């Protein structure tokens, strides 16, 4: 990959300054950059690091005095973090896999592959599966019976798409991602202690040991366009209807999406997030790392939940939540502040008790 | 799959009402149901949705006026959620994999397969492994050296059973489940800061950097009958004795069961639960999503822990626990309530201090 | 495996006592030990259990009266837990896989394998990958394009090493471990609600729904010597520079290490730990199970964080942290103690308010 500064700026819709014919073959942090790299000096604090490297060209913050920084050329963008998307796409070396269908892949004769589909070594594509044009089914990955993948799907090594799962275009599955595991759904012959404890908020009633029987998952998973699922993440099948993930929603590594969940569009679910069964998530929701959501909860549009938040009840649209138990973030931050002073409060109250019972001995 | 209402009710031990010869080929939620589906209207709140669909027959709640709901036939059960188990079993389309042993599977010549065992494409079965009759070893799954699986095991794609693991009958492993990873067990030459901080509850003493050496896992994993392990879950080998999972215990996705754990019968471990090493869990225990249990903790029979609970000390039988730090659920709910009022409390105490120091100026 | 007590003690640098010619073929817990086992009675509380088994020899605690315990021979070590490392190594039966290169493995012609490398059935090694001498590339595992593994790597079944990842010597990957998934990195065209809520600690400002575009991961992962990565753990690629894991750091199961993280040497990351992007972890840090670390946080050397701790701000070297929000462990334990008495505190303040407003009616 080799581009001039002018080509890059043009592709990114950014402004090229200086000797725009300078050619670069990679992008690097300022201190690591060679003369052939575009340095990423997107904030003033990176300015000094430029002198530690040998960059001739850099992506700089709006208003940077790039010539004073010793650069021959610069790319300026009003929101440099945003142009990182296009820039990183241009320079992504990819996985380096061979194109075409590897002879070791096991593809059922009834599976349908679109044009220019690549299938890596030791991948399995089951009966009736349909793979959209331009897709890459990576090494050792799996596409189940009657599953449907849209165009330009990209399955990394070991990703697994279960039977009857339907996925839109431009889907990305990271290594070992699983879509379409069975839901975790069991029932006891009689009302269980859990059912009673939920009703009473803590009392499971008379304890009677029971065994669980399995409720099979008859639904599948339906995923929109431009969705990504991270390494070791799991999206379970629905019980009767499908589990749903909306367009452009991105799921990080080690995320659990339980059966029957319906997730809207443009959401971010970060690492180790867990959604129990039948959670409904609106659009443009962000759940930070290790957030947990109890079953049957509704989360409104544009909700943001900070790292580790446990959502045990419905959350209205637009709320920014934090903590366990979850509260509005500003309230929670205040509670945290008070908790740090709680020892002093106990001492004050002890003093007050003494003072009030013996009002003449206040100290 | 096609059944009459009479056949279904009979199989479920439920009551068929109306035109019991009506035939259905699937089950659906009320609003989605066609004339060929059995609608699931198990609670009065689903009644209205029936009119949005075209169901002729439904599974209804006890006492429902099914004729008034426009149905030709109905199945009534005292606990509809329970009959969902049998019903979903009858209608489960399964994974659609071919029977028999796929030629691409790699099966060691010393492995023993019972009658009617199916082995999917690109599965591996190692030396000395024994697979019970009627088992399905799914595509790309793995059974290690000398591992034993009982009858009717079902390994989904990519499930991995390590060497010498012994599992009972009717085991289910979801995609990419791992049984028999090595325990996470390391030791420093001298007493470590962690060992000292645990003793002192917070003081790690003089800090001396040390490196860890590995303690190998010589034990295996022993799993009872009717156990299920979810996608991306891991049950680690024991150090000397085996890690044990009791009969009928169900493990959801992304669960960690550490080395030497002994889990009783009829437990539910929900998504992202983590058991550190040597945890002992009784029978009929339910750990909700993202519960964590510190190492060497004992959890009594019939304990229930709500979502996100961190159990850092032993829990007596029958307790319903919540929170971090874990308390009895009702106590914790009370603490939560007080926390929401803590700002007011600080203000009250400030007022009191003023009032007490200047008793004539109470406002 | 068969060793005399003398051989074992010699190998461990421990002291052999009694009939040091006694031969053992395994190690067991005291109650389970046969005459051919070395019993592990490393603490006085195991003494009684010895009589339930038939051990002739045991690893005992320093100062144990081994003859009174009915033993013919004993091994004494000042820190028995430490010698468990060497002992478990001696007796580890391993995975029992065949040596050599299995014909079903798919190895690219440009991959370079050192001497005595074994490759299991259905493993994939991509173009340009280099595998150090003595390595074992397990069944169904994966080594990506231009990835480098040092000497004596050991990849369990289904482990996946992505393109361009570079790993030192003696690396261990548990089943389904993933190194080199893409980072979870997205950006919106305009400043997002999350960016604003972080700045304001809770206010996301005017809500404007935006879609995310992907920032590709151009960096790789660089891992030192003697590192282990657990089952279902994920170490993501860096965005520009590499994600780094230092020498001798051990990562348990289901751990997420986000893009750009730099982890020092001799750390332990326990099960279900999550590091968001660009976290910097010093040396000799221990993060217990389910610890979470927010992005861009710095954790100093020798920090210890207890189970479930959420680190949302920088942690100075040597701190022992606990809880959510994280505090110093001793402070947090104190807060927990006060929380358990908070109901009483509210009642006291209510009493005080009554008493102060009607000072003559204190009860």
TrEMBL record, chains A, B, C:
<keyword id="KW-0441">Lipid A biosynthesis</keyword>
<dbReference type="GO" id="GO:0016410">
    <property type="term" value="F:N-acyltransferase activity"/>
</dbReference>
<dbReference type="InterPro" id="IPR007691">
    <property type="entry name" value="LpxD"/>
</dbReference>
<keyword id="KW-0444">Lipid biosynthesis</keyword>
<keyword id="KW-0012">Acyltransferase</keyword>
<dbReference type="Pfam" id="PF00132">
    <property type="entry name" value="Hexapep"/>
</dbReference>
<dbReference type="GO" id="GO:0009245">
    <property type="term" value="P:lipid A biosynthetic process"/>
</dbReference>
<protein>
    <submittedName>
        <fullName>UDP-3-O-(3-hydroxymyristoyl) glucosamine N-acyltransferase</fullName>
    </submittedName>
</protein>
<keyword id="KW-0808">Transferase</keyword>
<dbReference type="InterPro" id="IPR011004">
    <property type="entry name" value="Trimer_LpxA-like_sf"/>
</dbReference>
<dbReference type="GO" id="GO:0016020">
    <property type="term" value="C:membrane"/>
</dbReference>
<dbReference type="InterPro" id="IPR001451">
    <property type="entry name" value="Hexapep"/>
</dbReference>
<keyword id="KW-0443">Lipid metabolism</keyword>
